[in-house]
From TrEMBL:
Lineage: Bacteria, Pseudomonadati, Bacteroidota, Chitinophagia, Chitinophagales
Record's keyword terms, sorted: Signal
Protein name (Swiss-Prot/TrEMBL): Outer membrane protein with beta-barrel domain
Signal peptide: 1-24
Length: 189
């Protein structure tokens, strides 16, 4: 557990350090360099936490997300869909879990001249290969903190650290939670 916390803190520190460096390069420009409407595509990786980590090692997947500004390029509504494979530990009879999360949420940029954001999403996680007795869907939620790094005209790198929480996939079981990282190529539409 300590290793997971250290990894999360280190990743967050790295994202914030990159954010500070990018901020230094764009000083003097008080207008945000954020698109009104964007699409992002990228990989996601995670480490199971809690009792879920007793049976699963890590996850790898990808997602597509659309963001649309609803208030002055500060508050965005978004839709996200993806696929993830959660790799099982070496437990006889235990297979990898595969799921398709579909979520909606809000992204907020608290500083007008900075691309640091906080995001919250909620939705449904569809289990594609659950063992007998597993539910086929579960409630999922994902708070995230990240930074939108400008790459060039209309393109960005979106890097964020997130927590993926899922309700129980089986009655009497434990929640399936992960701490993850999403790095996506973002382009304005």
């Amino acid at each position: 557990m300590k290793k997971i916390i250290k990894t999360g803190i280190t990743t967050l520190a790295l994202v914030l350090a990159v954010a500070a460096g990018v901020k230094a390069q764009t000083k003097g420009n008080s207008e945000p360099q954020r698109p009104s409407f964007s699409l992002s595509v990228g990989p996601e990786a995670g480490i199971p936490v809690g009792n879920f980590s007793d049976f699963y090692k890590w996850s790898l997947g990808g997602s597509v997300q659309a963001d649309y500004a609803i208030i002055k390029k500060t508050l965005y509504v978004n839709l996200n869909a993806g696929f993830a494979n959660v790799f099982a530990d070496d437990v006889p009879g235990l297979d990898d879990l595969q799921w398709i999360p579909v979520k909606a949420g809000l992204r907020y940029y608290p500083f007008q001249s900075n691309n640091l954001y906080v995001q919250g999403q909620a939705g449904v996680n569809f289990i594609t290969n659950g063992p007998t007795g597993y539910k086929t869907a579960a409630f999922t939620y994902s708070p995230q903190i990240g930074y939108l790094i400008p790459l060039g005209k209309g393109s960005y790198l979106d890097a964020g650290v997130k927590f993926d929480g899922n309700s129980k996939f089986v009655d009497g079981g434990d929640a399936a939670n992960l701490i993850g990282l999403r790095v996506a190529y973002t382009f304005k539409l």
